[in-house]
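Input record (one chain):
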Amino acid sequence: MVVNHLLQLGLSEKEAEVYLAALQLGFCSVQKIAEKAEINRTTAYTHIRNLITRGLIKTEEKNGKAYLVAEKPEKLRHIWQTQEQEIRRRKLTLDLIMPELESLYSVEEEKISVCKYDLKDIEMARDFLVSMRSDFIYSIFNREELKQIDRVNEKDKAYAEKLLESTKLYKGIVIARVKQVNKFLQKLNTENDKVFIKYLPFVKYNIPCEFLIAQKVVTILRDKEIIIFKDKFFATSMKILFEILWQEAEPIDNLC
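The corresponding structure, as predicted from the sequence alone:
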């Protein structure tokens, strides 16, 4: 039972047994402590050195010979009080430097990261976008500029479904010459309660790229490449611009 309490004070099981043996033996040798604690002499040496460092065992000379002797049990209280003071000192130090550490962490977190993918690697880029789990996703798609990829196949549908599962809200703006979308987008717009799609006229808003905006990520799809920017400030700026365009956009109500 006493051994368990000593473990809670930070001693190892063998250190506790060696300390208790020394308490009972008084002035003694390493061999006597090893026998009392039922451990070998080499192991006893190691734990005795640790206990000397902790201040629980000391060496004293008696009749011209050096002996080991345990400190009084009261020394445990002093050691614990010293440890408490050290813990408080470290906590105060941590509280002092925490604002600076948080500042450094924030700077590191907000460093901009840019990844480029060829269009042939679109599946890799899509996997990343699905994995980011953003609360919202805003998209701007120019049908006139990107006609070559304005065809929805089964992979596109599967990607769209996974992307919608990864977010709480999706808003899309389609830029086109006529206020129409394909059947797949029309179905999403009418049947999914977190999907909202609007239209902007091509003649006025000829944005040449597709944009996908999330909390900390902006994706740009151009003719032959995909560029992913990981930066909260850029993403926030693009979100604000999107919301301005969203106010100008009109609801979609036709099929192409």
